[in-house]
Amino acid sequence: MSPFEIAMLILFGISWPISITKALRTKKVEGKSPLFMALVSTGYLCGILHKITFACDWVTWLYALNLTMILFDLVLYFRYLPKRNRTS
């Protein structure tokens, strides 16, 4: 466990509640990238797998918390994604 790893997870973790709150309040997701969120989620998942496999400690929960928040933000993205005009 490194203090820098902990600081990174806490600082990144601060951004997800802000993003989630904005999406819930405005119901708009313009400017968000589902690809970016999926890539970051994959990074958190890799961090969790590393921690479980090689260095399991309480920091694993920070990875899991961040992953949960970003996945929730991704769900909000698809929920509030504007529907395209369809011509029948």
The end-to-end span amounts to: 57 Å
Spatial extent as radius of gyration? 15 Å
- Number of strand segments: 0
On the 0 to 100 scale, the average pLDDT is: 92
Residue share in helix: over 70%
Low-confidence stretches: none
Report the sheet with the most strands, covering strand number, pairing sense and barrel closure.
none
Structural category is mainly alpha
Helical stretch tally:
3
Strand percentage, roughly?
under 5%
Outline, from the CA principal axes?
elongated
Describe the protein's architecture and organization.
It is a single chain. This protein has 88 residues and is mostly helical. The chain has a domain at 3-12 and 33-80. It is 76% helix and 0% strand. It is built from three helices and no strands. The chain has helices at 3-26, 34-54, 59-80. The longest helix is centred in the N-terminal third of the chain and has 24 residues, at 3-26. The termini are far apart. The mean pLDDT is 92.
Note the main attributes of this structure.
88 residues, mainly alpha, 0% strand, elongated
